């Protein structure tokens, strides 16, 4: 019951950013989808039917053009959520009040992670799936919509969670900014670049999950070891 209350509290913190990310993704995504449909017809009429190419992990399909929108939205959402959940409590001095209640510190961290994950799933995750399902309707696009394209989009969303964890690690660190406090963000950035260099979805997924696991372990270690 206490954990559920913590998650609800964290979801209230995440709600404005969930709504903002939904608004941005729906508006820009709708414009992008309409443009893809219209441009497809133009290229077909001009005789450019063999429009296959390679884009990141999967063969080209029209909605791979969503990649920049997915990546930027996910990274921005991850950084903003981590700042509000982990950095601002330290800045405002509310950590001691939160931690001296009859709640285990691990539960507090897990509640924050759960709320952040739900925010990602209900915003970019759900919207990306809906756009994919719309585009995958037979006859909607001349070029086939690959299921791997949806998986590629999920990798970009997971990279947002890596950015979230890296920012959270830097936020809970007790070192100075000019020393090693930004190490969490630096590690997250390096892992994101490494994932983007992968040529297969499996390789990208393995590195993404490995990065998330390492950062989560470090967050728990740092959070439980520091004094408030």
In short:
By secondary structure, the chain is mostly helical. Helices cover 75% and strands 2% of the residues. The chain has a two-stranded antiparallel sheet with strand order 1-2.
Rg, Å, rounded:
20 Å
Order of helices and strands: HEEHHHHHH
Strand content: under 5%
| Spatial strand sequence of the major β-sheet | 1-2
* Overall residue-averaged pLDDT value: 84
Helix content: over 70%
| Cα shape | elongated
In total, the number of strands is: 2
Distance between the termini: 25 Å
Counted by DSSP, the helix tally is 7
Q: What class would the helix/strand composition place it in? A: mainly alpha
Low-confidence stretches: 46-56
Largest sheet entry: 2 strands, antiparallel
Provide a descriptive summary of the structure in words:
By secondary structure, the chain is an all-alpha fold. It contains 7 helices and 2 strands. A two-stranded antiparallel sheet has the order 1-2. Helix 1 (2-45) runs parallel beside helix 4, helix 5 (147-172) runs antiparallel to helix 6 and helix 6 (183-196) packs antiparallel against helix 7 (201-225).
Topology:
Blueprint: H1 2-45, E1 54-55, E2 58-59, H2 67-92, H3 95-99, H4 105-135, H5 147-172, H6 183-196, H7 201-225
Give keywords.
228 residues; mainly alpha; two-stranded antiparallel sheet; 7 helices; 2 strands
